[in-house]
Amino acid sequence: MAIQVINMKYSNEQVIAEVGEVYHDEKSKEKGEKPICLAFTDPYTLHVVNETEDGYNINFKKWNPFTDDRQFNVGFDLIGIISGAKPAVQTAYEQKILADSQPIEEPNEETTTTE
Question: What's the pTM value of the predicted model, to 2 decimals?
Answer without folding.
Answer: 0.82
